[in-house]
Amino acid sequence: xxxxxxxxxxxxxxxxxxxxxxxxxxxxxxxxxxxxxxxxxxxxxxxxxxxxxxxxxxxxxxxxxxxxxxxxxxxxxxxxxxxxxxxxxxxxxxxxxxxxxxxxxxxxxxxxxxxxxxxxxxxxxxxxxxxxxxxxxxxxxxxxxxxxxxxxxxxxxxxxxxxxxxxxxxxxxxxxxxxxxxxx
Length: 184
Fold this sequence. Notes:
The chain is mainly β. Helix content is 2%, strand content 36%.
C-alpha cells in the first residue's frame, strides 16, 4: 500500500487552492430547534408526517407552541426571500424534501445570549425537517434550485392585516455572499 500524501505532494498550481470543509457542529441560536422527520420512502413515492397536534392545537414536537395558522410560500428558483422578523409570532418551517433551500437565521434580540449570531441551514434535498424559529430571530431563505420551491409554515399567531407582525430587514444585511451556496 502506498504512503499517504500531503500538500507537498500536490502540484503547486493546485496545492494553494486546496481547502477542507468544516464539519464541526455549529452553535444554535438560543431557542431554535430542528427536528428531523421520518420520511417513509416506498416504490411509489414517499410520505412524511409534518406535525402532530393535541386536541387544543399544541404541537407535540414543540411544547408550548399552539398552531393558529398554516400557510405556504412559493419561492421562484434563485430568489431570496429575506429578512423577516416577528415580535409576537413564532414560526415552524418545513421545506419540502424535494426542494433545496438555504435558510438564514439571525438573532436580533437585544437580551439574547446568542445576540448577533447568524446561522445557515441547508434544508430539503431529500430530507424532511421542522425548524422552530422563535420571535425576534430574523429569518429568510434562498431557493438554490432552478425550479420554484415551497415552504410550509405553522405559526402561533393569525395574520392581522390591521396590525401585521411582519417586520423587515434588508435582504443583504449580512452581505450578498451570505445567500450564496458554498462549494466544498
